[in-house]
Amino acid sequence: MAVRAAKRQFAVWILVAVGIAIVLLANAHLVYVAVSTHPDCMIMAMPSGGTDGSYRPAVPGC
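RESULT FIELD:
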């Protein structure tokens, strides 16, 4: 009985470690994408001179 409980506890700890690793890797991926993309090219709403609902790049070179 004690061996079975120890195996179950080990399996739970492995699953917890895998879950934490997945969360850490997902966050690292989000940081990588945020740093490597071009935030200056984000789509912005037109100023008051544009038509309603139209968009333009944040920087004209995009």
